[in-house]
């Protein structure tokens, strides 16, 4: 199995899940400037959309979207509890959260990450994204993790996205123009997350650091 990734991007999410599960997966780094792998492979031949993550199964099948990838991974080892059983209300709640993170948080960052091109739209997009993170902060007030007392694949996704913003308590990789300094529950969750062995291993494997 293979994971195509770009350091500090949303592909950090399945990377963390892979390490949580202890799976043997080949990591293939993609250069965002030329969309080639370290071996010189044209990444557009792997994913015509040009973005990561892409997860390649042993039989050659490929999954391209993060929420689908992390659920597939979780289902490889259901005993680990990273996703509830398929068909249960708890699973639908997880899918609801993954959808929220994908459409409201992940895509909400895009104008901020391309602020020069987005122009004045940034001032419309930023307040919306701030409100979404404020909701997450309140949601985490009485929970250790997004879905309750236990880590799930949703936490891996949020961790990857949170690292794009800024706060004095996090390592920002993209330095998008949004600040989380006042979000105390998000801070407590983030500090718990960065102590997880799988998170620390993934950060190191991508050539990143917390400081």
Automatic annotation (TrEMBL):
Domain GST N-terminal positions: 1-81
PROSITE patterns recorded: GST_CTER (PS50405), GST_NTER (PS50404)
InterPro entries xref list: Glutathione-S-Trfase_C-like, Glutathione-S-Trfase_C_sf, Glutathione_S-Trfase, Glutathione_S-Trfase_N, GST_C, Thioredoxin-like_sf
Keyword Transferase assigned: yes
One Pfam family linked to the record: GST_N
Record key words, sorted: Transferase
GO molecular function: transferase activity
Domain (GST C-terminal): residue spans on this chain: 87-211
Keyword Iron-sulfur: no
Superkingdom field: Bacteria
Membership in a protein family: Belongs to the GST superfamily.
Alphabetized PANTHER family for the sequence: GLUTATHIONE S-TRANSFERASE GSTA, GLUTATHIONE S-TRANSFERASE-RELATED
UniProt-recorded name of the protein: Glutathione S-transferase
Species of origin: Rhizobium tropici
């Amino acid at each position: 199995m293979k994971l195509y990734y770009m350091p500090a991007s949303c592909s950090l999410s399945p990377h963390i899940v892979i390490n949580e599960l202890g799976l043997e997966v080949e990591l293939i780094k993609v250069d965002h400037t030329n969309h080639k792998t370290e071996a010189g492979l044209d990444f557009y031949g792997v994913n015509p959309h040009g973005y990561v993550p892409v997860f390649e199964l042993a039989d050659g099948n490929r999954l391209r979207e993060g929420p689908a990838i992390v659920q597939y991974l979780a289902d490889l080892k259901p005993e680990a509890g990273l996703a509830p059983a398929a068909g249960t209300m708890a699973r639908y709640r997880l899918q609801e959260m993954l959808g929220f993170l994908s459409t409201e948080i992940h895509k909400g960052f895009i104008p901020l990450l391309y602020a020069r091109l987005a122009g004045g739209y940034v001032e419309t997009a930023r307040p919306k994204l701030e409100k979404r993170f404020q909701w997450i902060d309140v949601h985490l007030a009485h929970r250790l993790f997004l879905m309750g007392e236990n880590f799930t694949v949703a936490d891996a996704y949020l961790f990857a996205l949170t690292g794009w913003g800024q706060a004095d308590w996090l390592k920002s990789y993209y330095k998008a123009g949004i600040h989380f300094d006042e979000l105390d529950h998000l801070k407590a969750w983030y500090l718990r997350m960065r102590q997880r062995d799988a998170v620390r291993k993934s950060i190191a494997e991508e050539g990143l650091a917390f400081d």
